[in-house]
Write a structure and sequence with these properties.
The structure holds two protein chains of two kinds.
Chain A (H helix, E strand, L loop, with lengths): L2 H25 L26 H22 L8 H8 L17 H9 L5 H4 L33 H13 L1
Chain B lengths: L6 H17 L1 E7 L2 E6 L15 E6 L9 H10 L14 E7 L6 E7 L7 H5 L5 E3 L5 E3 L9 H5 L5 E3 L18 E3 L4 H4 L6 H8 L5 E5 L6 H8 L2 E2 L11 E4 L2
Parallel strand pairs in B: 3-12
Antiparallel strand pairs in B: 1-2, 3-10, 4-5, 6-7, 8-9, 11-12
Helix pairs in contact in B: 2-6
The chains are: A mainly alpha, B alpha+beta.
Chain lengths: 173, 251
Amino acid sequence: MTASWKSLYRTLLILAGLALTALSGAASAGAPLGPVIPPAQRDYSKTQRCVRPVEDMRKNHFKYLLHHRDQVVHEGIRTPQFNLQDCINCHATRKPDGQAIRIDSPGQFCFNCHKYAGVQIDCFECHSDLPSTPDSHFHKLGGDYGPHHIRYSRNDLVSPTTLEALASKGAKK
Amino acid sequence: MSGSTTDQDTDTSRRRFLGTVAGGVAALTVAPGVLLVRTAEAKPNSQPVSSAVRWGLLVDTDKCSKGCDACVSACDKEHGLYKTGPAEDQAQWIRKVEVKNPNTGYAFSLPVMCQHCEHPPCVDVCPTGASFRRADGIVLVDRHICIGCRYCMMACPYKARSFVAENLHNQVPDSPRGKGTVGGCNMCVHRVDENENPACVDACDADGHKALIFGDLKDPNSEISQQLAKYKTTQIREDLDLDPGVYYRGI
């Protein structure tokens, strides 16, 4: 291919691209192009919105989840970065009265994007699609992965209050 | 993808674990006669479980109260084993068994759950590798790869596993389970990994029976090992040579 052919080819490509952009812009005037998803409850850190860059998460979140699930189930490696429950804790929204909304219901984070992409989610046939409650264990998972994971000292498993309670119980008997 | 833990991996982590334990066992007197012994450093959550530990349970049937089902209801609550359909479909991870000698009339009760065998037949028969034994001795089902064939239920001599036949909707976050998969006592792995006792053990303690002791069978200083060394204990169906991790006293 000669140089002039190459440049003509490139010009045509650019023109086609411009035409497409104009067309799609006209077709969806006002309506956003992608799925409508509620924003997360908080940012991962000052510089990063999610546990990995957002573009990477959009493309690869299932790969991270898949890898993490095998580590958790088979090896007991319970790091919080790709913990599904922590994803839900951050991405689930709440009603004005504080009641959590199922993340796999219309209008919510997982549901809306998966509906847009036409990909079925199987996670919630077994996994809870609600954020952790105070008496569930996952909220305790501490780590060095940013501000929104509760830091939990593993050395103070018996709190002073529990010790006191135990001591008074022992004294009574 | 992570592979399964190789022998070499577990050997090095065993060394690390032993070092940690030797370095940091803390004893604490809470009240006269009550001594809390805890390892100061639990396994970091980024480290895989190691075969330096073998989790086990000791059930003292003399302390187990007849008619009490605190362990069963604690398990149901912890894992969200609520009723979904016919009674025979109800998941049962732990059950109370009442035993009576017809000649003497002596009766006692004991909880039976997955016995967390060293050589689990459920793992042998599983066609997909979903039923597996973790390096630390806990036998559980990876429901991501369970196809619901129920071979493990047939193979288990303790009737420890249940099949989920109905759609579930309100699973607890700590214990995911769903239709078409098999489940059973997993010794509350999510609690054990957080250095806590299984729910049944805590419930039994809270009721004041203290019939269940949970601990590391490989650590000679653990309460369970000391009790096992001191008293005569039995594993159910010892003749099968499965070496269960659950021991019973007084049966």
